[in-house]
Amino acid sequence: MHLEGQCNCEGVHYQYDGEPDVVGFCHCKACQRQAGGSGSIFICVDDGDLKITGDTIKKYITRADSGLDVNRFFCGTCGSPIVSRCVGFPGKAFIKAGTLNDTSMLNPTVEVWCEEAQPWMPQIPGVDRFERGPA
Ligand SMILES: [Zn+2]
Ligand SMILES: [Zn+2]
Q: C-alpha 76: how far from its chain's center?
């Protein structure tokens, strides 16, 4: 699978070639804050197959429930979240999938941090739901 995406100002571009591990939706408060929305839709991929270009990328670190860092990369010019790299998931990258140029492949199979979900958010039919992070 070939994926391409970018931030709003086009200062950051990325591409990925490979098979994603999983597409999911994270309801956690940190994702809500970063997105300014109800959470984030993500694609978990092998970080080594993800190529990010652009010199406006910045990083902010939040702390996962595990106590391990979540490195949140975003465009410092326009603020679009691009990818998270979690110390608890070495070698993996979580693409912020709303930045994809073509989102037609998005088909979430898991929801995480449902205990922090906005109460009016409907459940995605047929997916695995976790109150917190996946076990
Ligand atoms: Zn940008
Ligand atoms: Zn989250």
A: 17
